[in-house]
Write a structure and sequence with these properties.
alpha+beta; 402 residues; globular
């Protein structure tokens, strides 16, 4: 910390460069750290709307804003998936005042003990009002701070010809190569070999661009948006220790998001020694990340804008028609939720789910193997961190071949 000691920074993890330390010194003069009430008010000022839940307390058995100390039986309440999608079609980012929300919402200062217990019970929930999160939100929404923070470093960017973004990994070059790899893999690691189905094409294009270039694409008027127009999805990676998992990694994320630092007694890291870095995705309005599950615990924070999450329990696996583990988009639903083909996927209409809109300052916990389908309602900043794996729902996922 030769040029400025960043509040809350760790000794060995984070950005130790002169450029970053001087930038933080500059912003900390404008927004002095430690004024929790100012930061929390700044977060409230960013919120343009509120959302009411369609489910009533009698049907769900609890009030999402005053949840009991322990998860009630059947928590979280789930709604028929077609009710959720028909009420608010995914391709339409225009907010709805009433949504199918059933996840508990905890105030960080009032309900922290409840959040700890729900996390221990591996149940999803939302946290609001965390002062440490609010400080990061305040910085990231202050004038040109983000432009200065990321400077001219090019970062990973995905491009889609429409608003849908399906995750994929590069398949083997040919079936003969796949067979050789499979034989070698089965002998050593028993890992699946990724093969491209007939007529499969890459759903998105990968590239790198600067933050300013991405903003030029993403921050456009509504007449240039729409589900059939091009969209760009921006990504940052903070590796941690060692800091070399990606070209131009964003190690300052550990200084910006101190609540995601790998320390003991962090609400947002269940097993801090198992942390897999900090990953951020910046979405332009309308971007959809297709339904999928992650095989680890996941805490998600929105630092600007709004994102809609449609979440489903792992026991809904068989109704969601996942691509198999040998597919380039394994773990992801083959169904277009914007226009579900119920003849090809008749079980889909039996699925149950719920939704929540995350606004700046909100943190969402998704336990291991929970499904999530994400819609960017505005231009937004979202980051997440994963830490460890729970085994409670592995049997549900194995039924689907994983």
């Amino acid at each position: 910390f030769k040029y400025y000691r960043i509040p809350g920074a760790m000794e060995k993890i984070g950005d130790k460069s002169k450029q970053y330390q001087l930038l933080r010194k500059e912003i900390d003069v404008v927004l002095p750290p430690g004024d929790d009430e100012r930061s929390l008010q700044a977060v409230k000022d960013l919120h343009e709307r509120t959302y009411s839940t369609i489910g009533n307390v009698q049907a769900m058995g609890y009030d999402i804003h005053d949840c009991p100390p322990q998860p009630p039986e059947g928590y979280p309440y789930a709604f028929p998936i077609l009710d959720v999608l028909n009420n608010w079609p995914p391709d339409d980012p225009i907010p709805r005042p009433d949504i199918h929300q059933s996840l508990c919402v905890f105030d960080y200062r009032r309900d922290r003990s409840k959040a700890w217990l729900y996390r221990q019970m591996e149940k999803p929930f939302v946290v609001k009002g965390d002062p440490a999160v609010a400080q990061a939100v305040e910085r990231w929404n202050h004038e040109d701070y983000m432009k200065k923070l990321m400077n001219t470093v090019p970062h990973r960017t995905e491009y889609s010809e429409n608003n849908h973004f399906m995750y994929w990994i590069k398949p083997a070059r040919s079936s003969s190569v796949a067979q050789k790899l499979r034989r070698a893999s089965n002998r050593k690691f028993k890992q699946p070999i990724i093969e491209a189905p007939n007529n499969w094409t890459e759903p998105t294009k990968m590239m790198r661009m600067t933050y300013e270039e991405w903003i030029g694409h993403a921050n456009v008027t509504d007449d240039k948006l729409g589900p059939d127009n091009p969209h760009w999805y921006y990504r940052l990676i903070g590796c941690g220790d060692p800091p070399n998992c990606d070209v131009g990694s964003s190690e300052y994320l550990f200084d910006e998001l101190t609540f995601f630092q790998p320390k003991e007694n962090q609400l947002y890291l269940t097993e801090h020694r198992q942390q897999k870095g900090i990953h951020c995705r910046f979405g332009m309005k309308g971007v959809i990340a297709e339904n999928h599950f992650d095989g680890s615990r996941n805490f998600v924070v929105v630092l600007g804008g709004e994102r809609r999450y449609i979440v489903s329990e792992p026991n809904q696996c068989e109704m969601l028609a996942l691509h198999p583990k040998e597919h380039p988009s394994a773990r992801h639903s083959a169904i277009d939720w914007s226009d579900p083909d119920l003849e090809s996927f008749p079980k889909f209409k039996e699925a149950k789910t719920s939704e929540v809109v995350l606004q700046a300052g909100d943190v969402l916990y998704l336990p291991t193997n929970w499904f999530h389908y994400i819609i960017s309602l505005t231009l937004n900043y979202q980051c997440n961190t994963r830490s460890g794996v729970s085994t409670e729902t592995m049997q549900d996922i194995r039924k689907c071949g994983f």
